[in-house]
């Protein structure tokens, strides 16, 4: 699904990613953990194609296609979803229209027919029901006056509607409370399927109590320094990153 080889990248002339090697097979959920400033968010931005991040070496393929050569919109159309970075508020824009526009952009790029308001409502209702989210969510302005938990629900809904092949979740700086962790986890767990992969980036072990990853990678100083199973996250919780650094 995702294959990263020797990836190096700079931000404002400073090398942040120093040779990332990482493979996420189809159907697997991998976690990336690491201390603050290790490059976790930079990696997610580079994968999403955000401006301002200069790739200086290495390669990334997404289902065999050169991801780094694709425009951000093409990445989304190919099934890449970057979650939880910008809970933008759009006063005056109805959430239903916002979600339908996002979905139709992806459908169009995939060569699928766009959904009209009625067709969208039908699809959205199914997803809402599966995720136990109130239908009121569709009627409000995008994120306007939403609580932290409601913003999470809305992003989970967006993710479920777009049905990505690979979801990248960067939770590091958002200081999620337990309720929000559960919402995100349930959303991700509901998508678990042979054709779905996720890269869950987190500073905290506790998210991984809810989303049990197939593999855990430790990112430090712009490199993956250790890879293990879910037990690695527990070990980090107990002995901290210093123990990994000593071993690396
Ligand atoms: P993490 O998500 O692991 O906390 P980041 O990827 O946010 O780490 O940051 C990694 C390093 O890159 C840090 O030293 C940070 O200061 C630096 N960095 C990130 N973004 C920028 C930027 N826009 N300009 C300059 N330095 C940046
Ligand atoms: Mg940080
Ligand atoms: Mg970060």
Descriptive account of the structure:
The protein is an alpha/beta fold and 248 residues long. The chain has a single domain (2-247), classed as P-loop containing nucleotide triphosphate hydrolases (Rossmann fold, 3-Layer(aba) Sandwich). The protein has nine helices and twelve strands. The strands form three sheets. Strands 6-9-10-3-11-12 form a six-stranded mixed sheet, sandwiched between helices. A four-stranded antiparallel sheet has the order 2-1-4-5. It has a two-stranded antiparallel sheet with strand order 7-8. Helix 6 packs parallel to helix 7. The longest helix has 18 residues, at 230-247. The protein is globular, with a radius of gyration of 18 Å. The mean pLDDT is 90. Adenosine-5'-diphosphate is lined by residues 11-12, 14, 16, 34, 36-42, 172.
CATH topology: Rossmann fold
Structural class: alpha/beta
Bound molecules: adenosine-5'-diphosphate, magnesium ion
Distance between the termini: 27 Å
Which outline best applies?
A: globular
CATH class wording: Alpha Beta
Return the CATH architecture: 3-Layer(aba) Sandwich
Low-confidence stretches at least 5 residues in length (pLDDT < 50)? none
> What is the string of helix and strand elements?
EEEHEEHEEHHHEHEHEHEEH
For this structure, what is the CATH homologous superfamily? P-loop containing nucleotide triphosphate hydrolases
> Strand share of the residues?
25-35%
Output the number of helix runs.
9
Radius of gyration: 18 Å
> Largest beta sheet: what is the strand line-up?
6-9-10-3-11-12
Q: Please, what is the average pLDDT?
A: 90
> What is the domain tally?
1
Strand elements, count:
12
Instruction: Give the biggest sheet.
Output: 6 strands, mixed
Helix content: 25-40%
Keywords: ATP-binding, Nucleotide-binding
Domain ABC transporter: 2-246
Protein name: Fe-S cluster assembly ATPase SufC
Organism: Roseicella aquatilis
């Amino acid at each position: 699904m995702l294959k990263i080889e020797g990836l190096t990248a700079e931000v404002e002339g400073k090398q942040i990613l120093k040779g990332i090697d990482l493979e996420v097979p189809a159907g697997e959920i991998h976690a990336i953990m690491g201390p603050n400033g290790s490059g976790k968010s930079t990696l997610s931005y580079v994968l999403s194609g955000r401006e301002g991040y200069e790739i200086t070496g290495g390669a990334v393929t997404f289902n065999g296609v050169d991801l780094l050569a694709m425009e951000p919109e093409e990445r989304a159309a190919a099934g890449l979803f970057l979650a939880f970075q910008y809970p933008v508020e759009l006063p005056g824009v109805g959430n239903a229209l916002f979600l339908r526009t996002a979905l139709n952009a992806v459908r169009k790029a995939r060569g699928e027919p766009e959904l009209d308001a009625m067709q969208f409502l039908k699809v959205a209702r199914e997803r809402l029901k599966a995720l136990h989210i109130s239908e009121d969510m569709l009627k409000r302005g995008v994120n306007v006056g939403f609580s932290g938990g409601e913003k999470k629900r809305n992003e989970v809904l967006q993710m479920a509607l777009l049905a990505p092949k690979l979801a990248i979740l960067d939770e590091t700086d958002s200081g999620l409370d337990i309720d929000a962790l559960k919402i995100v986890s349930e959303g991700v767990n509901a998508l678990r399927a042979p054709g779905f992969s996720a890269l869950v980036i987190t500073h905290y072990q506790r998210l991984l109590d809810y989303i049990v990853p197939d593999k855990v990678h430790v990112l430090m100083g712009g490199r993956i320094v250790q890879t293990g199973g879910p037990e690695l996250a527990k070990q980090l919780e107990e002995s901290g990153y210093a123990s990994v650094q000593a071993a690396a």
